[in-house]
Write a structure and sequence with these properties.
Number of helices of chain A: 9
Radius of gyration of chain B: 39 Å
Largest sheet of chain B: 9 strands, antiparallel
Number of strands of chain A: 0
Helix content of chain A: over 70%
Number of strands of chain B: 18
Largest interface: A-B, 48 and 56 residues
Shape of chain A: flat
Number of domains of chain B: 4
Structural class of chain B: alpha+beta
Distance between the termini of chain B: 35 Å
Oligomer: heterodimer
Order of helices and strands of chain A: HHHHHHHHH
Radius of gyration of chain A: 20 Å
Chain lengths: ~280, ~475
């Protein structure tokens, strides 16, 4: 039941991404509204599916929050990306980032639905995951990942945007006109990266507390732990670079993309390294 | 917020100080530490390194060893980078603090009330009523938003000034300090306490644990007994629970007992025990020995046991107990030593089936013949396997320090990202019997929040 809804949500997000793209091409208010409404419908349906999945797990007698395996984490990742994006759209009253962010949520959802290695079935919790820290650890980590994903989308926009200073005489490419000013993008990248940084810090701290109870140490240089630290250091460098003269803008945008690459290694890449966090081991 | 490392007020201070006072150095260190940390996630570390070392060419191994890359997170060069970062953090903070303090003091003394003259207004509008009348309402709104209002009146011009969130400048120092606390805690933790592990068979008792990193053993001043180990499974075969029922004994008396489960450690005598792993070890076997006359003797044996054969001067040693030898089921290897010499052979539980499937096997492979030592015939009744539980055993006195550091870090982030230093000036002048109101605002971050404050003030007056 829940996976049926979630498969549909995948298509809804695809629709939203297409509408945002058309909105970018034609700049019509109609397509913008259509995109926002579609995205909103998608996240509403996804929220319902998550609740249904949660309830279903209790019916099966193995009740737990749907945050326990790769499938559920991908779904939650996409949900968090859409949630934060829609909050941002509402706050800044600008839809341009939708073209770059919604496809990412769509990709996460379709990876979860299509990959033959990922089972959408509700599975019980293995002993290591039976902890009160599961919820807070996973939520903080993935809210962080989602903020970083949006920061990277904005960073990509910044690089596409090109120079503001350039005279507008020759008809600028459509996306240059459509995208927000570089200063505004820079500020947004900073805000998203800061938010992600707070969430990642909380995620690392809750993870350390959990590790203390589960494995008897709060830090053990497990590949996932190490990569989360690498990610943290990259964003720390990025946020500090704002205080060095001349490091605004382009450097921030590039760092936002490098940061997301680190996030993806932390999330998925480390599964191919030996460690305690692996989603692959049963 | 102040920016730039260049005007770091380092006049008169030496070159080393200004080197460490640079934010550029911070960024370089953060990136270098991040990049070098990747190495440790690719190269196997510590215990795992032992395995890989044999497969690599010796030249490469010695190169990697000399760079301490098989234990890089504890290597001298990695710790040195962490130390440099700590110094950098400290110097930067100390260097910046006086300026922050000045800003804080200025805000408290209200010296900035008249600064508006030089600034351009962000909102300008007119309202009915004289400046004095209008100022009264505005003062209320500002007081509600900013907590406190300062008012200056000069030649008919009233300036109201509100300021809040100056303390948010201190958040960054809290974060930097918290990182130092965490680092100090981690160093303290690695120097104190211990980190060990132990396997206890069901029913077994231990008083010594092995230390990680091959650093020998540690004797506990009490004993631990594993009364029972259980694994429960879900219907789909996934494990549901690993549980060791432990008893802690002092002078032979049980002082504390309880179930140890994953995620639920037990503390006893200042030492924490964690359910880390488990395993199966073949425990006891039921062996029957039949002599030439048909007399049977049933024996319960475990590996390492020795017994005499009835009616003959021969000693049997139980060499191995296997639950499933070469996919042929349970088997026990026994060695028999007599005056004629020694022999060893396997006793299979399912020898009859094995012979049926492979006729003549006991002739071809004499070691599989349970009657090899004539005239005795051995048979195996079965094997009772026993679980052993694997415990992680340690103490880490640094936990409260690191936890305090983490708590401080979160508090610091709250201060930095939830609050901002906002200042607002409202100037009222009389114009044609009405009041001309100009509002200006400044903030160190969160211009959206400031803009909302100004809107609220403007909206409040227009009503």
């Amino acid at each position: 039941m829940n996976t049926v809804i979630l498969n549909w949500v995948t298509f809804v997000y695809f629709g939203a991404a297409v509408f945002y793209f058309i909105h970018m091409l034609r700049e019509g208010e109609f397509w913008g509204k259509a995109a926002t409404v579609t995205a909103f419908a998608g996240i509403a349906a996804q929220t319902i599916a998550l609740v249904v999945r949660w309830v279903e797990s209790y019916r099966m007698g193995i009740g737990h929050i749907p945050l326990s395996n790769l499938y559920e984490s991908l779904i939650f990742f996409a949900w968090a990306v859409m949630l934060l994006y829609l909050i941002m759209e509402w706050r800044i009253k600008n839809r341009s980032a939708g073209t770059f962010v919604t496809p990412f949520a769509f990709l996460l959802m379709s990876y979860a639905s299509i990959s033959p290695n990922i089972s959408g079935q509700i599975q019980p919790l293995i002993p290591a995951l039976q902890s009160n820290w599961l919820t807070s650890h996973v939520i903080t980590c993935f809210m962080g990942y989602a903020s970083f994903a949006i920061a990277a989308g904005l960073g990509f926009m910044y690089l596409v945007k090109g120079d503001d200073g350039a005279p507008q005489k020759d008809p600028a490419p459509f996306f240059r006109r459509y995208l927000p000013a570089r200063d505004a993008l820079d500020e947004l990248i900073y805000q998203c990266a800061s938010l992600g940084f707070i969430f990642l810090t909380l995620g690392i701290i809750t993870g350390a507390v959990w590790a203390h109870y589960a494995w008897g140490r709060y830090w053990g240089w497990d590949p996932k732990e190490t990569w989360s630290l690498i990610t943290w250091l990259v964003y720390a460098a990025m946020l500090h670079s704002r205080y060095v003269r001349g490091w605004r803008g382009k450097q921030m945008a590039v760092m936002a993309l490098v940061g997301l690459a680190c996030v993806l290694v932390t999330y998925l890449g480390v599964n191919y390294l030996p460690g305690l966090h692996s989603y692959i081991q049963s | 917020m102040e920016k730039g490392s260049k005007h770091s007020a380092a006049e008169g201070k030496n070159a080393i100080w200004s080197f460490f006072a640079s934010v550029r150095l911070t960024i370089v260190l953060l990136i270098v530490i991040a990049v070098s940390s990747i190495l440790g996630t690719i190269i196997p570390q510590q215990e795992e390194a032992q395995r890989i070392m044999r497969e690599l060419p010796p030249g490469l191994v010695s190169t990697l060893q000399s760079l301490q890359l098989f234990d890089m997170y504890h290597s001298v060069w990695f710790l040195l980078m962490m130390a440099l970062l700590a110094v950098n953090l400290t110097v930067c903070s100390v260097n910046r603090f006086p300026r922050t303090w000045k800003i804080f003091q200025a805000a408290r003394s209200g010296g900035a009330v008249r600064r508006f003259e030089g600034d351009t207004a962000d909102r300008v509008f007119t309202a009915g009523g004289t400046p004095v009348q209008v100022a009264e309402g505005l003062e209320r709104i500002i007081r509600r938003k900013f907590g406190k209002v300062r008012r200056v009146e000069e030649r008919g011009v009233i300036t109201l000034h509100g300021e809040k969130g100056v303390f948010s400048y201190f958040g960054v120092y809290v974060i930097h300090f918290s990182i130092l606390v965490v680092l100090a805690g981690a160093i303290f933790g690695s120097l104190s306490g211990f980190d060990g592990y132990v396997n206890i068979p069901e029913g077994g008792t231990i008083d010594t644990v092995k230390l990680r990193g091959g650093q020998g053993t540690k004797k506990l001043d009490f004993t631990v007994r594993c009364d029972r180990f259980t694994v429960e499974f879900y219907d789909n075969g996934m494990p549901r629970e690993f549980r060791s029922d432990l008893s802690f004994l002092r002078d032979g008396k049980v002082v504390q007992e309880g179930p140890l489960r994953v995620n639920h450690p037990i503390e006893f005598g200042g030492i924490r025990f964690y359910q880390a792993s488990y395993g199966n070890q073949p425990g006891t076997a039921l062996l029957t020995v039949q002599d030439g006359r048909g007399a049977k003797k049933l024996l319960k044996i475990s590996a390492g046991d020795q017994f005499e054969l009835p009616g003959r001067k021969a000693t049997v040693s139980v060499l191995r107990i296997e639950e499933n030898l070469m996919n042929m089921g349970p088997a026990v290897k026994v060695g028999v030593v007599s005056e004629e010499g020694g022999t060893a052979f396997w006793v299979f539980r399912h020898i009859r089936e094995i012979e049926e499937a492979n006729p003549g096997i006991t002739k071809q492979v004499p070691q599989f013949n349970p009657g090899l030592f004539k005239p005795y015939l051995f048979s195996l009744g079965g094997i009772e396997s026993a679980y052993f539980t694997g415990l992680q055993v340690n103490t880490d006195p640094s936990v409260p320090i690191v936890a305090a550091g983490a708590f401080l870090m979160v508090a610091g982030f709250m201060i930095v990202f939830l609050f901002s230093h906002r200042r607002i000036w409202v100037r009222l002048e009389e114009k044609d019997g009405k009041s001309r109101i100009s509002i200006a605002g400044r903030c160190n971050r969160d211009p959206v929040g400031l803009s909302r404050d100004m809107d609220a003030i403007a909206a409040g007056e227009r009503k």
